[in-house]
Each structure stands twice: as C-alpha cells, then as structure tokens.
Amino acid sequence: MRHPLGTVGQVELLVLSSTLCRIADAEENLGESEVREAHLAKSLFYIRIGDKEKALEQLKLAFFYMDFDLISKSIDKAKNLFEEGGDWERKNRLKVYEGLYCMSSRNFKKAADLFLDSISTFTTYELFPYDTFIFYTVLTSIISLDRVSLKKKVVDAPEILTVIGKIQYLSEFLNSLYDCQYKSFFSAFAGLTEQIKLDRYLHPHFRYYMREVRTVVYSQFLESYKSVTIEAMAKAFGVTVDFIDMELSRFISAGKLHCKIDKVAGVLETNRPDAKNALYQATIKQGDFLLNRIQKLSRVIDL
After folding, report:
1. Entry pTM
2. Most C-beta atoms within 10 A of its C-beta, which of 119, 154, 176, 264?
C-alpha cells in the first residue's frame, strides 16, 4: 500500500486490518451506530496517513480540506436524502454542518439561524466541541440579530449561559454590547481578535468580521441620538476624537452608517432613513411593476 507520505508501515497495516474486522463484525452482529463508528475509524486511519482520496471514499472530509465545492454538493445530497426519510438526530447534525459551511462562506445570518436552532440538540462533536460551537453561535449572532432577538435568543439562552463563561472575553463581549458598555465592549473585542484570527474557519473573514462588528456597535450608539458630539462618542468608547473621526468617516463613505460629521462644530448628526417613507417608496415601485406586467398581459390577450 502506498500513500503520499511513503510506504505504510507494519503498525499501520495492523491498525487497518483491525479496523476492517471491526467493520465486518459491526455489520454482522451490531447496530447501525456501531457500523457508522467503525467506518468513521477507517476514515480517520486514512486521514492519519494522509491519503485524501481513500479518506473521501469513507467520509466527506470537505471541511478538513476546506473544499467548499464538495461541502455544498454534500449538503445538497444530504438534504435530498432526508426528503426520502431520515431521523431527527441526523437532521439536527446536518444543520450544524450547513451552519459551519455558511459561516465559512461569509453567510453569517444563515449560519446564526442554523446554529441557534441546534443549541439544545448539538451532538456534532466530530466537528468541534460544544464550547467552540457556542463561540461560533455568539459571534455570528452579534452581527446578524437585532437587539431584541439577541437578548431573547443569545443573552438569556440557558445553554449559552452555562458555557460562555469558559471562553475568555466572550461573555463580556456579548453582554457589554447589549448593556451599551462600550469601553468594556472594545476591551473584550480586542481580547477576542486573536482567537478569531487563529480560527481556521473565521480567519479568511477576519477583516470583514471586524468591520461588521464595528458597524453594529457604532449604529447602536448613534441610534439613541439625533445629534451627539464626537468627543462624547470618543469618551463612551474610550478612544481618541481623532480615532472616532477617522473610523466614522470610512463607515459613512461606505454607506454603513447613516450620519454626517459636522467637523466645525465637532458634532455627529444622524440621518437615518424614514422606515415609513422607505415602505411607501417600495410599494410605489412594486405597484408600477405590477401595472407594467398587467399592460403587457392585456396586449397578449388582445392578440
């Protein structure tokens, strides 16, 4: 037997032989879960010796190899199989797999929804431990949920409360945001950045996530004011006036924040869009679209 690292030694051959015997025994004498565990052991053997192709024959290891095309195809295949029938445990496990895929492909909103649906049914320990799952759930929820939903689904969630204290900075990060303790939030945020940067799934989106979090916290602060001095905001966040001025300038020009800076007066003036006016404009636009469709249809009928 050959593999990418060279010739498989006698010890590896003995391990493989033992695993094959375990699979045969499970298929003949044991239940479905034992068969699945035996095949998983075979997959892990091929992972250990670095044989990707044979490992993939046993298990879809797309996450291990960060093969997003394979991940997407595997999730779609699993969903199609569940339409033919499947137990609740496997459906719940699939939610975590899909949530991890969404997070890894920067769809944080869907990832948060899937993770939150799986909090009380999590059993996907082959991907990561429960502490890591809660870490991902909190991070994705913070930039995806409104303040009311965040309180109900995350801040007060019993499953999260039992674990969040074990993860350094995470509890302070979540609660200081909800409690509007912006100095504490920035401090916890700085503490978490290294964990986010080193995470294999979040690392590619590090800069994007950092911008999204800052957008959330700045928007939350400005929501309470029609106008506020730059100095007051800087003091609330524990940073300098120049830092806030530079930060907000970037976010305003990118369309992330609805406010303007009066540099002479040193004041921030919010100009949040009117929700009712936006709804009115959307209704008019949809109405025009519908009328155009009706006119085209009437011409076809006349013919």
Report:
1. 0.68
2. 154
Domain boundaries, the chain: 1-59, 65-180, 276-303
C-alpha dist (Å) from residue 8 to 1, 12, 19, 46, 95: 6, 6, 15, 11, 37
DSSP state of 262: E
CA distance 60 to 133: 20
Q: How confident is the model at residue 149 (pLDDT cuts 50, 70, 90)?
A: very high
Where do the H-state alpha helices sit in the chain? 10-29, 32-48, 52-58, 62-65, 68-84, 88-104, 108-117, 130-142, 147-150, 158-161, 170-178, 182-198, 206-222, 230-237, 241-253, 275-302
Residue type, 273: P
pLDDT band at 5 (very low <50, low <70, confident <90, very high): very low
Q: DSSP code of 226?
A: S
Q: pLDDT tier at 257 (50, 70, 90 boundaries)?
A: confident
**Rounded-to-integer distance, Cα 186 and Cα 201, Å:** 23
Do the beta carbons of residue 142 and residue 174 sit within 8 Å? yes
